[in-house]
Write a structure and sequence with these properties.
The structure is a homodimer of 351-residue chains. Chain A has 351 residues and is α/β, with parallel strands linked by helices. Chain A has a nine-stranded mixed β-sheet with strand order 1-2-6-5-4-3-7-8-9, with helices on both faces. Chain A has a three-stranded antiparallel β-sheet with strand order 10-12-11. Chain A contains 15 helices and twelve strands. The longest helix of chain A has 16 residues. In chain A, α5 packs parallel to α6. Chain A is 43% helix and 15% strand. At the A-B interface, α5, α10 and β9 of A face α10 and β9 of B.
């Protein structure tokens, strides 16, 4: 998972195919060669042991996709993080959660609203998930600190960003829960935030957006929530208020307008039965791929181009069994020749 | 139409049955007797002539349901006013119209918004309809005064209410259009406003609500627009603003969130083809009732009670032909024994 070139989707497919990380690690060089590239540089055993010791020393824990403590709703995402680092009260992962996200530079009124909403949802037994950012995120965590709140950080579990949130993040270690996908010590970079946002959206039965500018990170979280089949909710504002435009736009696109905790509960209630169904991503039902159909690799390679196309289309056009196509894609991926795009699309780089 | 006890629905049914007002007037006493009551006191010919002279003297005109100048979209309402009095530019009735309504005590910002929206919609060729009330209504008329606006008053065409709107109403006589259902000189009373609101909703392809309190007249207009199959649009606001609650509630119930003229145009565009279809309420296609089924009257009378029930249900339960049931209802109506309620429901008073 820490090896460059192996993302969550590839990781998940390797485990689905080879059963264990150890078996997958052994197979990767061979698969990459068949895909026509050189093998990714795999992280060493000692790198892994160093991180494990580090996490242990921080008083944090690993949560591994497919294992008991791993949040079940998050596991439903196609690109669920294979590994999470968690510090705090792990029992919060067993309760239904709602995400509250919004602008870092939100108005004081909107922050007060977010804090009140988080408080009221907490009183109703819901855990509030957010991103420990300035503005709405901070207000949401504050409102639900007494009842249960989870902060997902973009960098390492031990990195405070923004720096002034150190006290808040520390409070969450002690009275809430902090989750990170990146290894300890990682300073968050721009590209980390969308990854963080998918975790926020994935943990929650629904996401409430409070004040968001058009094209902001909060709208990305909302889109990811919608793609994951979760409820998207938005708090409206006057068209005269530029900070309301993102939320109003979301409502126009079909998000549920919410004005209070009651509205949120009404919107997420139909989703509650999902929580009852135990769902492990590696249980039977996961596609089992066929081996030994070397011919599929050439066909798939020919079908791919620089423009992203849906995997389903490649399967259909190839005429090959779906398992054989998936294996060919995995080989190209490990050879560093496949790019994975949003919506399950893939494209190929020239060999 | 000016006779007490004959409302728009009854009037329309009488004309549908008897062809002309003269024939209907002759038939009313007989029908009422068959319904088990005494005939309504019919207004005299001289009363009618006096009103016609008065309207003429005011420089106003009658528009009669089923005749050329009568607004076609309004004629689609089941309870379309049989007669309208109009003063101003009648050509405005030929253009597509959007209603803008809202709170009388709206915020200055909302009034400015309404004026700007009306202006922008006017620039796009739409006529703006409203109710010549304080607040949002006045702002909407002002914004569209140059491009075309219709004010529907609750009282007589010559009555200024609120009094401070005299200059605005006079401007609409000269550069827009004013419509009234009540006879000249009528001072508007509380019960007149919902009637006025149905005309606003009925004239327009869609109604935009800007700032409205829960349970306000603007929400009645929105409901009437929805019942008439027109587009209902609402301008959102912060949940912290009590004046936004009515609009936010409308959006939660399915109204389209609009932030500007572009959003309004996008919402009403699919309805434009309706304007092309010439639709006269008295053309073939109108149900023709069967005569001479005196037995239906007794059955219908037995089926009715003091609680309102849908006419469709009475028809179904009676086992009688729909035309015979309608005739029986008309007879009871003219006998002063039938009450008509929203949603096509009826109830009976004891004989």
């Amino acid at each position: 998972m820490r090896s460059p070139g192996i993302g969550p989707v590839t990781y998940r497919q390797l485990i689905a195919r080879f059963g264990t990380p150890a078996a997958a690690l052994q197979a990767v060089p061979d698969l990459a060669r068949r895909g026509g590239g050189k093998a990714p540089t795999l992280r060493s055993r000692s790198d892994a042991e160093r991180e494990i010791a580090q996490v242990d020393k921080l008083g944090a824990k690993f949560l591994s996709l497919g294992q008991g403590l791993y949040p079940r709703l998050l596991a439903e995402l196609e690109d669920a993080p294979p590994l999470l680092i968690a510090k705090g009260d792990l029992t919060l992962l067993d309760r239904q959660a709602v995400a509250i996200v919004g602008a870092r530079n939100a108005s004081a009124a909107a922050c007060r609203f977010a804090r009140g909403l988080a408080h009221d949802l907490g009183e109703q037994g819901l855990v509030v998930v957010s991103g420990l950012a300035r503005g709405i995120d901070s207000a949401a965590h504050d409102g639900a600190l007494e009842t249960g709140t989870i902060g997902v950080v973009a960098g390492g579990i031990d990195f405070f960003y923004p720096p002034e949130n150190e006290a808040r993040q520390t409070a969450l270690y002690e009275r809430g829960l902090v989750l990170a996908e990146m290894p300890p010590g990682t300073e968050p970079r721009a590209r980390h935030f969308p990854y963080r946002n998918r975790i926020i959206a994935g943990l929650a039965v629904g996401t409430v957006v409070v004040e968001a500018a058009p094209r902001s990170g909060s709208l990305i979280t909302a889109r990811l929530a919608a793609e994951a089949g979760r409820e998207v909710m938005a708090v409206p504002g006057s068209p005269l208020d530029p900070r309301a435009q993102g939320c109003n736009q979301l409502i126009r696109q079909g998000a549920t307008l919410v004005q209070n905790a009651h509205d949120v509960l009404e919107a997420v209630r139909p989703l509650q039965p999902r929580l009852a169904s135990s769902h492990s991503p590696y249980e039977p039902g996961e596609p089992q791929w066929m081996d030994g159909d070397a011919g599929a690799l050439g066909i798939v390679e020919d079908l791919l181009g620089p423009s992203p196309v849906p995997v389903d289309e490649i399967i259909r056009l190839s005429g090959a069994p779906s398992g054989a196509v998936q294996m060919a894609l995995l080989e190209l991926d490990l050879a560093g020749r496949l790019d994975r795009h949003a919506g399950g699309k893939v494209s190929i780089r020239p060999a």
